[in-house]
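Issue: copy button drops trailing tokens. Both records pasted manually instead:
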Amino acid sequence: MHTSEEQFYTAVIVAAIALGIIIIVFIATMIRHQRRNALLNKMRIRAEINTLEKERKRIATDLHDELGPILSAVRIQINHLPHLSEADKKIIDFANKHIDDAIAKTREISYNLLPSTLVRKGMVRAVQEYINKLSETHELQITFISPDIQLPTEMSINIYRIIQEIIHNTIKHAEATQLIITLQNNGSKLVLLTADDGKGFDYDKSIENNSGLGLTNLHSRAEVMNARFNFRSMPGFGSQYVIEIPITETYAENN
């Protein structure tokens, strides 16, 4: 091989190596940027969720500690008015009924914003209590199966909200008669499984018509927990959710 040919092939090899290095650096840079953007997006979602939960807690506290006692005090004052005629008593009875309804509604709203059971007794008890309350007003038969596991506060709230959203969606859209919810502890992860016997729906069409806000909320909650989210639904075959939530890293971060 002539010297000129050797130089040519050497130059080609060097250029190929240089191009390969440039491509590798470019790909590595893109991966770093994607990971950084994903992390920033997750941090943003987590901040938004934490802000939302703090605001819910503030409103729930205000309703329970301020508005509730004010309504109760008004009721007491009304019932202590002197020299009431029969017409006045009817008006008072009418007012008492509406005040009692307002107090009950205030407590219900406060509970839905932040159940006291979730704070005092944990997520599993809070979910069961929520289901028991729903059974008084809705015909949907809900079965909840879970070990009595204690979880970090942020994870407990997120799982509770996910289950709450799934139940809400089932009642509102699915026309189902049964919903089964199971939470399994596999050591390194929790697996949340739900299945209903409702009419199902077209996932892609729901997203396309901007009616999939509930699914978006579920995705956001799952994402901040580094959970794997799977959803299956077809018209006429009900809906199933499978959410795998790693707990080893989360416990390490919170301990």
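Record 2 (pasted manually too):
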Amino acid sequence: MGRIHKLLRTVARFLPMLFLPAVFGQNHGSAGMDCFSILVGRDASADGSVLFAHNEDDYGERVVNIYKVPVLEHGQGASVRLKEGGTLEQAPVTCSFLWLEMPEMDFSDGYMNQYGVTIASDACQSREDNPEFTDGGIGYWLRRIMAERARNAREAVDICGELVEYFGYTGSGRTYCVADPCEAWMVAVVKGKHWVAQRVPENQVAIIPNYYTISDVHLDDTLNFLGSGDLILYAEQRGWYDPAQGAFSFREAYSSPGALTHTENITRHWSAMTLLSGKEYQTGDTFPFSFIPPGKIGLPDLFGVLRDHYEGTELDLTGSYEKGNPHEHGARTICAHTTQYGFVAQLRNGMDPAVGAVLWLAPHRPCVHPFVPWYAGLQEIPEGFARGTYLTALEEHFIPVGDMKDYLPVHMFIKYTAHAREIDEAYLERIYPIREMIVEAERDFMERQILLEQEVREMTDPDQEEIGNMLLGFTLECLLRSQEMMEQ
């Protein structure tokens, strides 16, 4: 698919020019215009896995901690106290999961649990101005409870819907992307108690920047849709939808109008569609919720999209980096100055999720750091990627970090951010040799992944600790390669 993608990028010269002036100077983004996700059904992927690609974008200087939370048993009467003040009965036993924690942030953490259920989100501004809440609503804890309790993506969607309908969602709006080894969903929540979810067809790909992408809703089709029973009626009552004007569209009814027309959303969506769909879309087109790709999508395809700066198009205002680095000059891109990390979750059915669920993680900026495999079956996290423990992290999550350099001087994430800044200072001179090293390293990681997993399959009577040690050793070797590249 790579050659086709390069060829298709030439269609950019036909972009409607009316969008370009609005894009200039918006590289630093607007509130709610952060994060980007792609969901790939298992019949659309090269290896039969469900793939979930995500760039986490957030304002300011941030740090990302990585924790492994074990299976936990909770005593009778245990409860979860939400940030907003409400309480929720805790499950007797909660799942183990990898936790990408961003201190201070309400809506930025990522999760992959022991069943491969992977969760991240994209802010989507809604038009709701009269929300209903119970006990203050729910925000930060919503995705964590999904990760703690769900054995599959649909169960996570059900949990999300129940919590939103009871407590009410505190943010303006958001789409949670949820995937497991069998299927992928988008769950769009609106400030207050309304939500809708759509399943990504197994042979298709869905892309979302920072606006709602669910349009047509068929709640009678429970295989593919779930949502609030009064979703359409409420929109009618608020004057957001008039049946006389045609079919109901969730995104048109519930979105903040500014989000749907914002160029930072449209151009990022357009670029990924151009790279993956095989069609010559223009920025003024209406993009479908999902599409059938022209060929099977692999990990390298998604790595490439998460690194995209509109190279080779009219929106590349750096002149192929001659005018500076793409994170500080020109249009808001998929890989941006606000990107804190990127990942591609590789979720394979028919395998023990400990080995079959892999989080390919690029700490901080995907364009200058390779994607390294972190398995769901890891029993511990390599040293230097977290401060304290998963228990102290939860207790201290909303305590201001202050100066990032004082947070934990030897934190690896701080080294990755410093390296990215250094590259930005001379991006043109440095990016091409770095890109070659990254592609070579990732190719090597994927080849060695095959050998490692073959070795695991051939083990007689293995235990989880033994497998966990093997997986940790592989991740450590890949991280060492990544760190050596930074030093070079």
